[in-house]
Amino acid sequence: MENEKYLKDIQDIKQMMSQSSRFISLSGLSGILAGIYSLIGAWLAYKTIYFDTSTMGSYRTLIISYEAVVKLFIIAASVIVLSIVTGLILSLKKAKKANESLWNQTSKRLLINFLIPLLTGGFFIIFLIEKEILSLVAPLMLIFYGMACLNASKYTLGDVRYLGITLIILGLLSTWFLGYGLLFWALGFGVCHVVYGALMYFKYDRN
User: Fold this and answer.
1) How far is the C-alpha of 126 from the C-alpha of 154, rounded, in Å?
2) pLDDT cut 90: percent of the chain above it
3) Is 98 helix (H, G, I), strand (E, B) or coil?
4) Helical H runs in 51-192?
5) What is the pTM of this model?
6) Contact status, residue 147 vs residue 117, Cβ threshold 8 Å
7) What percentage of residues in the chain have a pLDDT greater than 70?
């Protein structure tokens, strides 16, 4: 009986230490919604590209107008902003429910480790766009975002690690199938976010 009490105390201590070193207020529902936003964005991008009257060339050698590029940028920016705002609102709600602070040392470390690969990839992709090397933009977005998730996963839920690995693999496959970037973009940022978000929601949030 005494041994069982000690074992329970040890388990409680380990759980408290794990929670204090990991950001557990990450909402699975925010991942689902981010995936839905991405799928809608991919559909709008598809319509913009393939219904643009200035579009020329086949699927793999597509040339689009400047106006279409501006529309694509607006769509991408809208998806990013919506995903960030949704994630913040739902994570804040989850943190309040658990009587925890959203902004603490763990969330700071999470943000720093997430942003280092993400910003590096962002600047690199901007340089590629400036040099008009557009075929690698979608694969590198997936790869660097996956690396950001992988790098930040040690400070949050472990499922984020597997999301990162999946995105990196999709990004590498996308470099093999150049010209199908929009399809891989929809798979990575859309379908994967919905699937992993749903898994996290049913695993951590429903209770």
Assistant:
1) 28
2) 19
3) coil
4) 66-97, 105-130, 137-152, 159-176, 181-185
5) 0.78
6) yes
7) 77
